[in-house]
Write a structure and sequence with these properties.
alpha/beta, six-stranded mixed β-sheet, elongated, binds adenosine-5'-diphosphate, iron
Length: about 450
Amino acid sequence: KIEKTDLLIVGSGAAGFTASMAAREAGVKNLIMIEKMAVPGGNSQLAAGGMNAAGTKFQKQAGIEDNPQLMFDDTMKGGKNVSNPDLVRVLADKSNESIEWLDKHGATLSHVGQGGGSSAARMHGPADGAFVGPYLSKFFRDEAAKSNLDLRLNTKLVKLIKGTNGEITGALVKGKHTGIYQIDAKAVILATGGIGANPELIQKLRPDISPEVKTSNQPGSQGDGIILGENVGAAVVDAKEIQLNPTLLVGSPVIVSETVRGAGAVFVNKEGKRFISELTTRDKTSAAVSKQTGGVAYEIFDQKVRDKVKQTGAAFELGLAKEGRTLEELGKNAGIDPKNLAATIAQYNKYAEAGNDPEFGRPKISAKVDTPNFYAIEVTPAIHYYMGGLKINPQAKVIDKNGKVIEGLFAAGEVTGGVHGKNRLGGNSISETITFGRISGEEAAKRIANN
Ligand code: ADP
């Protein structure tokens, strides 16, 4: 059986859903979206932080000065200058437009927080300070229902089909109950996410990463889109670049957002000592946490931060946050040297008062940890994100090993490489999915209109 459609979108994370909306807005009438898991959402649904954007009205309302050039510079620097500058330029320049686009459709990311490696507060989340992933995921599911999107769950891409001129003409997909069938399409968008739940592939690419390291990824992140793209000649960039996130909540699959540290949490080890600036990049932080006793660290914060930052909530709901009326009591309850902890925080508070951290150079140090109760959350690094992936151009067209566009094949989101280089900044993943998701949908629509 062969089905015919105009556009086939593979994957139901933020990139896939955004592409579907943008394609429809650009006039695409017939589209099918497939998702191999039983539920939509992908890793996007788990995103704890926010969406980076520069020069937004929400930043202006909060008195934050920022601009796309600064976001470009931060992203290039964070990625150690190996990112493709043309893609980073698009990410930064279109970020405000993407925030506006979401807002126009009813997804308002008006809360602005600080992420690691960003020189301005530009991590946008929902107004109440909740997680961005679940919020956007619900928004996308509602949109899909409203627009009667043909979303087929339990349906996996197994092969891309090439026409006689090397263009992509469709795919073989496998439904859990229907078996394998063919969908012919004028364009295919790969939005299949990363590789974080494929330990064999990770070991092959990075034998230096211990097989013991946990993952924050949902089980569908197996690298399918990258492998199937390569099978039709696509080039892969930055193949070895796998990011660990330093702060998986120990005992859960939940990542503790950087915004908790941004709002004032202090990192200590079991000995109760600080060991790094709380707001440096993820690669440096992960390496530093791995070296501490037991490969863990603790985020220490007070009642002010707990009240202000929603992202601490999961640790409390899961019963994994430790508590004390004093820092000594907290130390005892959390298994951190109590005397050192109290001394470290007393010293930290002096730095906060002076607005300068001579020991570790934490930027924008101002909030003291001084309002009981006190809390500790234990964290450890986990495999989090694949910076590598399919090579694309700024039109989200997939590029082959000879540097030529593979006609009819588009990709957006974590499945692509080139945007984040050797290290992704927190908040840039959702930003990438929305901006390049939109571009892939619009560009696919152009191709469909011309064919
Ligand atoms: P992004 O952040 O780039 O949108 P996500 O991880 O959020 O990526 O979403 C990717 C989605 O693609 C996941 O839901 C994943 O299960 C799905 N997916 C991965 N491989 C396939 C495949 N072969 N066929 C269909 N869906 C897939």
